[in-house]
Amino acid sequence: MALPKLNEAPKYELTVPSTQKKVKFRPFLVKEQKVLLIAHESKDRRQMLNSMLDTVKACVEGEDIDNLTTYDIDYIFTNIRGKSVGEKVEMIFKCEECDHENPYEINLDDVEVSKGESEKVVKLTDDISVKVKYPGYRNILSNDKVLNMTSAGEAFIDLTMLCMESIMTNDQNILLKDEPREEVEKFIESMSAQQFQAISDFVQKMPSMTYQAETKCTNCESDIKRTLQGVDDFF
């Protein structure tokens, strides 16, 4: 006799930050939690991101997660995690004055996603523009420099490349995913400082989950302030 299946129907609803579309989701199950724990123990960022993406894909109904931005996935995963094992997260903040470790509790319901444009057309000259949009984690996983952040400068250049979707001229719309990396690099290197700044401003303003934490050290009563940003800071 086949055993019954439990807890597979979506129970909750949220709004995707970049699209404002409402989607339904369920908490993660033991099978997904096991994969998440193994990935966390591995300390391997690629494995951790893949496990998070697989969990979101399994728990969200009717949404192509590969088309969502990184901050969409962070927000959705945070909601799934909250409904799965609880909205409260215990953290430790070390006092910069006396090194005392202070417990701090965050309610995930209070975490917000900063606002921003999800895509934009940046005009470089009268005849050439670049369409930029924020990448998804599948894009991040395809680029080791951005994934591992071994060099902040190189990682930012590569992140900028990931954000550039197409080059638009008066009679063409050239999709950069179809172009050799070397050609895209040459295009970026041909920009003036001002032109590159116009694109990098968009990259630097990428929305993210943010939380301003403020407390006092229980040992020396010094003020402790922390800005938590992105899913890595919360879990």
Descriptive overview:
With 235 residues, the protein is α+β, with helices and mostly antiparallel strands. Helix content is 39%, strand content 25%. The protein has nine helices and twelve strands. Strands 7-8-9-10 form a four-stranded antiparallel sheet. It has a three-stranded antiparallel sheet with strand order 1-2-3. β4 and β5 form a beta hairpin. α1 packs antiparallel against α2 and α2 crosses α3. The radius of gyration is 21 Å and the shape is globular.
pLDDT < 50 stretches: none
| Helical content (DSSP H or I, runs of 4+) | 25-40%
The CA-CA distance between the termini, in Å, is 40 Å
Q: What order do the SSEs take from the amino end to the carboxyl end, as H and E? A: EEHHEHEEEEEHHHEEHHEEH
Strand arrangement across the biggest beta sheet = 7-8-9-10
Helix-and-strand structural type: alpha+beta
Overall 3D form? globular
Number of domains: 2
Biggest sheet overview: 4 strands, antiparallel
Average pLDDT confidence is 91
Roughly how many Å is the radius of gyration? 21 Å
| Beta-strand residue fraction | 25-35%
Counting DSSP H or I runs of 4 or more residues, the number of helices is 9
